[in-house]
Amino acid sequence: xxxxxxxxxxxxxxxxxxxxxxxxxxxxxxxxxxxxxxxxxxxxxxxxxxxxxxxxxxxxxxxxxxxxxxxxxxxxxxxxxxxxxxxxxxxxxxxxxxxxxxxxxxxxxxxxxxxxxxxxxxxxxxxxxxxxxxxxxxxxxxxxxxxxxxxxxxxxxxxxxxxxxxxxxxxxxxxxxxxxxxxxxxxxxxxxxxxxxxxxxxxxxxxxxxxxxxxxxxxxxxxxxxxxxxxxxxxxxxxxxxxxxxxxxxxxxxxxxxxxxxxxxxxxxx
Length: 270
Ligand code: GLU
Hints:
Layout: H1 3-29, H2 39-46, E1 49-53, E2 56-57, E3 61-63, E4 69-70, H3 72-85, E5 91-95, H4 101-106, E6 112-113, H5 123-126, E7 128-129, E8 134-136, E9 138-143, E10 158-162, H6 166-174, E11 179-183, H7 186-194, E12 200-204, H8 205-214, E13 218-220, E14 228-230, E15 233-234, H9 241-256, H10 259-266
Parallel strand pairs: 1-5, 1-6, 10-11, 10-12
Antiparallel strand pairs: 2-3, 3-4, 6-15, 7-15, 8-14, 9-12, 9-13
Helix pairs in contact: 3-9
The protein binds glutamic acid (GLU).
Glutamic acid binds at residues 54, 57, 98, 116-118, 162, 165-166, 203-204, 207.
């Protein structure tokens, strides 16, 4: 090995060590992260829980006119905070999108996701899920009087989906001939439906219903193409084990006390 090659090798090793140190630092400096520790204890010590929620998906997670996070998922977060910290308001909400939910969870930016998250076998490979807390199914939002009466009617036609949602995968699987157009938000997809760019928007019944309730010119097809369960997602690995047990206890306790029925009523959900 020449002197120059040795120099390059040493430089590469030093660069690799520096990169590793900085990467770890970035990981550890985040308040939601404590790899190898116990996330439950971390949250209790920190004094607040960091929850990834939607900020644009009524009635599950959105921001009301006073600037507060509200919704069905948000209320579950308050119940978890009450159990963990004896105060329903020790929650820091972090807005998440379908496309970045898992990245924020795995980067340690949030402790958990309560974000209209469907439990799927594929997702269970890279996140731990609580027991189900809400059952829904995918359907289509169309304009009233539309010729689209079933998924099949969208063959070779444009249909809107939210990037990163389960409905994106479902429509590509069930109707490969549909022209799938992706949107980042429900508002964007809804606007595309209104202006005729797409002939339908497919997603969870529970989410799309909010649009048919606020706008009588759009409606939901009554058929659901899937049966889906929402769950709370946690980082995989031992750090979340105890927290997952606590969360499942909160969910069954809310169920037993009829809190989910009250919340469904409060947020106009079936
Ligand atoms: N439940 C679906 C999912 O987890 C859609 C959620 C959403 O778009 O908010 O992908």
